[in-house]
Amino acid sequence: AETIILPGVGHFKDAMSEIKRLNLNAILAKNTDKKMIGICLGMQLMYEHSDEGDASGLGFIPGNISRIQTEYPVPHLGWNNLVSKHPMLNQDVYFVHSYQAPMSENVIAYAQYGADIPAIVQFNNYIGIQFHPEKSGTYGLQILRQAIQGGFIND
């Protein structure tokens, strides 16, 4: 495979336990030359650690996943607009999550939800998409296609 897609909905610690039980962490670690796209929990699993269950992640992207800190209701649920310098990333997409990646130089797009919430990150050949492209209509599928074909850096 040229691209590995790591989907996910659920709890970070439980997901990592299952990944380790199936030895998928070792398989993924042997394929670091491949493009990997993590969606929702899949994005969070690519980070080093999560406060959700105080668990180690796959460690492909530096940083810690933490609970969303906002005056708005958590989980962050529903449609929200992407903010980005990338010309493609400026429409509404569908979110369902209570934890977030850190704001960093790896953030390509974010949503504003009382705080800046990373929505798309890219670090080397790893792309994380916090929202659900499959629930975001044609636009979400265009974003997923762009992630698979080339990513969002140096377009």
From TrEMBL:
The entry lists its GO molecular-function terms as: glutaminase activity; imidazoleglycerol-phosphate synthase activity; lyase activity
The gene name on file is hisH
EC numbers, comma separated = 3.5.1.2, 4.3.2.10
Role, per record: IGPS catalyzes the conversion of PRFAR and glutamine to IGP, AICAR and glutamate. The HisH subunit catalyzes the hydrolysis of glutamine to glutamate and ammonia as part of the synthesis of IGP and AICAR. The resulting ammonia molecule is channeled to the active site of HisF.
**A GO biological process held by the record:** L-histidine biosynthetic process
Subunit: Heterodimer of HisH and HisF.
Q: What is this protein called?
A: Imidazole glycerol phosphate synthase subunit HisH
Q: Which InterPro entries match?
A: Class_I_gatase-like, GATASE, Imidazole-glycPsynth_HisH
